[in-house]
Amino acid sequence: MPRLTGRLLAAAAVPALALSLAAPAQAATLTWTITNPDATKDLLAWSGPNVLKNKAGKTVFTCDKTAILAKPGASRTLAPGAAYQAAVHGGSFSAGCKAPDGVAWGSGTLSGNYHLWLRATAYDAAADAADFTWTGQTGQVLVYGKPGCTFFLGDVKFRYSNVASTFTSTTGKVTFASNSPATNCAGLLTHGETVTFTGTYTANLAYKFRAATS
Fold this sequence. Notes:
The protein has 214 residues and is mostly beta strands. The protein is built from one helix and 18 strands. It has one domain (28-213). A hairpin with a 4-residue loop joins β11 and β12. It is elongated.
């Protein structure tokens, strides 16, 4: 068996040494800056038609409009790594919700002890857009119902464009208050499924939600 010289042994050790010295990847730290043109006013964002489809792609209902009412707070820059969230009012709601067969869906917003927020989760500098999740203490934010089906919708995902001052919703999560066959949406929705919830909401003011990465 050939012998390894000192030079070859040293060369062979380099990759192992490099691996041992490699630092673990660190998560990026975000520093959020919020620009509010008028801190005396609440954020009010109205959507046009808002469509909810189940995981199979079937339209459950379309709402004429949905409103988000929140308190973004005064213009400020948060400490590095601090989370940003805006408290959402119980005055947020959906209206004119109907199934494709014309059956009306009732709707409401959870409030009070549910503590709802629009919580910033990421910032896309290239698109100048911030990602938000509309969530609450239990994860649920809206309730919808018709005979045979009542469910909560929560963890609704949004992207806010700082250029257009619009929120665009994408998905949400369905949960049931009980497993009662009388209200568990048999054949339409299942507990825990992710649904698409698409709509574009125009904000009343040109808010800016931006984050620097370090």
